[in-house]
Inverse folding.
């Protein structure tokens, strides 16, 4: 059994690491303070993504993506995820379901999205449908060769400025017919109601959206009526592993900074790393990172080798749950090792504290991951999690 990274994997890691240090870290403080970056900076980051060949890592080369394996995608997420203020989101990863569009949709949306010329947002959550995504009420009704859509969305990241929003609806208000639509920027009837402020200062909004008399031609449907959740299943696996990997990226950066500080800082006439209490915190942090990275890369390799979709989905939940919770504990311990200086906004560990908190909530809260894991254990036993084949 070879669990090592290949030469190509290592080269991708070096590329992603260099890109992150050169194009993301230098802009963290400015973004934290002003909550936006000048257009010239955004353009230079975009160019950096292309120069380092990190665009659309999840899409096939024939569509302009990098065609990376899941292991390689996790490597990139771990590196870029270490940047604070969600700067990792500048490295675009177009929704995987865009490849399931018609040839015209692939041409109009997927190809420019992979090139970084078209930005996307995913609008599923609603005021009454958060964890319970099956409770979506935004309704699409066929009227001739158009769908008439009414409803509301919330927290849809980047929807205020995305070139196209992927909108989850239920046709005829029927929950058994979840259906996706592509909404071009500026389409009448898709209105940003409010842009609430959130703890993370990423320069990206998570708006509340009113959808009133939105009229879309049937050609704007992605997939078929009722296929909405089916089309997003693969995205969930990819997104949950990405969250786990970037959580580990945050945890590693915080731990490295804390270790450096522990060696440097003296109290009571000695470096604080000489206190066993501090060593114990570092020991716990390192052990959790080792465990987190081990499950991410083991399961990513299994998925790359053809693991069935159901098992992949079930394992991705366990990985997202463990890694996001562990990263939260690790970043918090890093703050503790820094003492008061760990709460200064200029310190990356403080900013990581705000960033890492979200990872336990979006793309399915920790409780929802446990609902998935518990349900699988009830149905199929423990082996999927405890066995090694
Ligand atoms: C910054 C940010 C960006 C976001 N971006 C997007 C986006 O781009 N697109 C999008 O569609 N959505 C987005 N979301 C929404 C996100 O996916 C939801 O916040 C998340 O799914 C949780 O839903 P909720 O906030 O309504 O919490 P709720 O579902 O109301 O949950 C509240 C609490 O109840 C618990 N709970 C709920 N159901 C159960 C259960 N069955 N068993 C046990 N506990 C349960 C939860 O775990 C949680 O602790 C974003 C959210 C944030 C904060």
């Amino acid at each position: 059994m070879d669990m090592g990274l290949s030469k190509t994997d290592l080269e991708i890691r070096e590329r992603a690491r260099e890109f992150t240090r050169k194009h993301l870290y230098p802009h963290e403080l400015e973004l934290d303070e002003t909550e936006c970056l000048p257009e010239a900076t955004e353009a230079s980051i975009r160019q950096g993504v292309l120069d380092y060949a990190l665009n659309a890592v999840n899409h096939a080369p024939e569509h302009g993506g990098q065609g990376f394996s899941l292991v390689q995608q996790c490597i990139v997420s771990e590196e870029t995820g270490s940047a604070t203020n969600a700067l990792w989101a500048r490295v675009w990863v177009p929704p995987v379901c865009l490849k399931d569009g018609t040839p015209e949709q692939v041409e109009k949306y997927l190809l420019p999205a992979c090139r970084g010329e078209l930005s996307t947002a995913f609008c599923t959550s609603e005021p009454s449908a958060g964890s319970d995504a099956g409770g979506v009420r935004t309704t699409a009704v066929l009227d001739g060769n158009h769908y008439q859509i009414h409803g509301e969305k919330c927290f849809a990241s980047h929807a205020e400025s995305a070139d196209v929003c992927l909108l989850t609806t239920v046709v005829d208000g029927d929950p058994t017919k979840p259906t996706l639509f592509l909404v071009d920027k500026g389409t009448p009837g898709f209105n940003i109601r409010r842009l609430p402020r959130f703890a993370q200062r990423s320069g990206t909004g998570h708006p509340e959206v009113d959808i009133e008399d939105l009229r879309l031609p049937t050609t704007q449907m992605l997939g078929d009526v009722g296929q909405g959740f089916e089309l997003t299943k693969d995205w969930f696996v990819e997104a949950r592993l990405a969250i786990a990997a970037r959580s580990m990226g945050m945890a590693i950066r915080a731990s490295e900074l804390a270790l450096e500080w522990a060696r440097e800082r003296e109290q009571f006439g000695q470096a604080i790393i000489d206190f066993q209490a501090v060593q114990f915190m570092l020991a716990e942090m390192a052990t959790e990172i080792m465990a987190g990275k081990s499950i991410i890369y083991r399961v990513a390799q299994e998925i790359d080798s053809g693991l069935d979709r159901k098992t992949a989905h079930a394992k991705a939940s366990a990985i997202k749950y463990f890694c996001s919770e562990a990263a939260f504990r690790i970043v918090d311990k890093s703050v503790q090792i820094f003492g008061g200086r760990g709460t200064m906004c200029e310190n990356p560990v403080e900013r990581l504290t705000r960033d890492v908190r979200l990872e336990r909530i979006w793309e399915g809260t920790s409780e929802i991951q446990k609902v998935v894991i518990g349900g699988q254990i009830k149905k199929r036993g423990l082996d999927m999690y405890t066995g090694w084949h």
Remarks:
- The mean pLDDT is 97.
